[in-house]
TrEMBL record:
Record-linked Pfam families: Rieske
Record InterPro entries: Rieske_2Fe-2S, Rieske_2Fe-2S_sf
PANTHER family named among the record's database cross-references: 3-PHENYLPROPIONATE_CINNAMIC ACID DIOXYGENASE FERREDOXIN SUBUNIT (PTHR21496:SF23), FERREDOXIN-RELATED (PTHR21496)
Domain Rieske span(s) in chain numbering: 3-98
Name this polypeptide is given: Rieske (2Fe-2S) protein
Keyword Acyltransferase belongs to the record: no
Taxonomic superkingdom: Bacteria
Species this chain originates from: Mucilaginibacter lutimaris
Key words, A-Z: 2Fe-2S, Iron, Iron-sulfur, Metal-binding
């Protein structure tokens, strides 16, 4: 797992949804109810950009067709049978870091 610093996150500015490019991926850093989450930024239903969505009841809501995804796991709500990638987030010395699996992590997990 490689950890990437995400500059410019105002931890006092909750709630927020900020799209960042990190490790070759487009990721949403989401601040919601005093927690941080990191999810992929593309909706698996029809490819909408999720940064225009919002959070409700612990889920990220897609702005296109209102599909919802668990903020912690990225799992779609019952009946959707889909998910978005989720990433670990940590705060170190006041700075936000996102962890992304490397190729070696994936290969040696098997
Ligand atoms: S594109 Fe996101 S719910 Fe349809």
């Amino acid at each position: 797992m490689k950890w990437y610093p995400i500059p410019g996150i105002d931890l006092n500015g909750l709630p927020f949804i900020k799209k960042v490019k990190v490790g070759g991926k487009s990721i949403l850093i989401i601040g919601y109810e005093n927690d941080l989450y990191a999810l992929g930024s593309t909706c698996p239903h029809a490819g909408a950009e999720l940064s225009g969505g919002w959070c409700k009841d612990g889920k990220l809501v897609c702005p296109f067709h209102r599909y919802t995804y668990n903020l912690q796991t990225g799992k779609g709500s019952p009946g959707q049978n889909d998910y978005i990638d989720s990433y670990p987030v940590e705060i170190r010395a006041g700075e936000v870091y996102v962890g992304i699996e490397t190729f070696c992590d994936i290969v040696f997990k098997r």
